[in-house]
Amino acid sequence: MSGKERQRVGIRASVTTKELSLVEASEGLGLCSRQTRRVWKRYDTRGDGGLVHRLRGKPSQRRTAPELRAKILARYAERYSDCGPTLAAEYLGKEKLVVKHEPLRRWLLAENKRTVRRRRQRHRPRQENQPAATHPWRKQMIGSGRGALARRRAERLGGGENNKQPRGHFLLSS
Q1: Which of 168, 167, 150 is nearest to 159 (CA)?
Q2: Total domain count for the chain?
Q3: In sequence order, which residues have a C-beta less than 8 Å from that of residue 11 and are 6 or more positions away?
Q4: Residuewise pLDDT in 10s, the chain (174 residues)
Q5: Which residue range forms the structural domain that includes residue 77?
């Protein structure tokens, strides 16, 4: 039994002990009261098996017919084994063997005719954390930049500290 089905048994016990009403229990289960009564009636007649979904373990009604699946896989092996599932599904569709690429990919994996190729991550060496001043090229960069350049120009023009331009403005020489 799944957790959802065990929850139904617990709520059923709460209703039989009159802790919950049928309407409150059905709201807790996400069902209408009529469906709740129908599920519990099946539980009374069949026991725990009455709570299990009746399609569990059965094949889907939307599945591709086994004959068509075998035909598609044979044609893939015969002609399109060097293609990926997306391109092969497109070519098979032109031959009136209509299948989407995802089921074809799953079938090929199940038949061991295709393997999953995982891409390796690039190795990136770990960098040591060093202060900026220890690198020789950073020593040259310290003290340079727009702000420092503007300060040097202002000092050269004779303004010094009192003649600072607002940030982001360039000094115009006259």
Answers
A1: 150
A2: 3
A3: 20, 25, 28, 29
A4: 788 888 888 888 888 888 888 888 888 888 898 988 898 888 889 888 888 888 888 988 888 999 999 999 999 999 998 889 999 999 999 999 999 999 999 999 998 888 777 777 777 776 666 565 566 655 555 555 666 666 666 677 665 555 555 555 555 554
A5: 66-110
Are 43 and 73 in a shared domain?
A: no
Q: For residues 32-55, b (16+ Cβ closer than 10 Å) or e, as one string? A: eeeebeebbeebeeeeeebbeeee
Query: Do 46 and 72 have their domain in common?
Result: no
Angle at 52 between CA 50 and CA 56, to 5 degrees: 130
**Strand, coil or helix: 150:** helix
Of 27, 38, 97, 100, the residue nearest 68 (C-alpha)? 97
Which residue shows structure tokens 């310290």? 142
Q: How far apart are CA 104 and CA 76, in angstroms?
A: 9
